[in-house]
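Customer ticket, subject: "Can you confirm the structure for Respiratory-chain NADH dehydrogenase, 30 Kd subunit?"

Message body: Hello, I'm evaluating your service for our small team and ran a test protein. I'd like someone to confirm that this is what the system normally returns, since I don't have a reference to compare against.
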Amino acid sequence: MIENLVEITCDQLLGEISKAKLEGYRFVTASCADNGDDTIDIIYHFDKDYGMRNYKVNVKKGEEVPSISKIIFSALLVENEMKELFGLNITGIVVDYGGHMLLSEEELGSPFLRQQITIEQRGGKKE
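Agent reply: Thanks for trying us out. I re-ran your input and got the following:
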């Protein structure tokens, strides 16, 4: 269980992040969890005087999520990472690496998603 967790929607995301910044909270990072169904949880972690505040957004796979990087520039790194590793559809990242910040063309897309990967998708041959 995460303490100080505030559940919000994608529509509330930018407003809540702006508010946290104005209140003096510092962006720490964001994390993702594939729920094993058609949804992913994104949790944005903030700190102020060693007191954490966490914002959780539950999104459907493929749903657009606005980037917070226009408010907090450093978020571009973790947003690119989440976009690449979880296949999140994060829009408006100030510097978007297009899915190749960590993975090369030869590597599997969205490797952290819970999904069935066939032998052919891994580049092997079916026997």
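A couple of notes from the result: The helical segments are 10-22, 75-86. The domain at 5-91 is CATH 3.30.460.80 (Beta Polymerase; domain 2). Feel free to reply with more questions.
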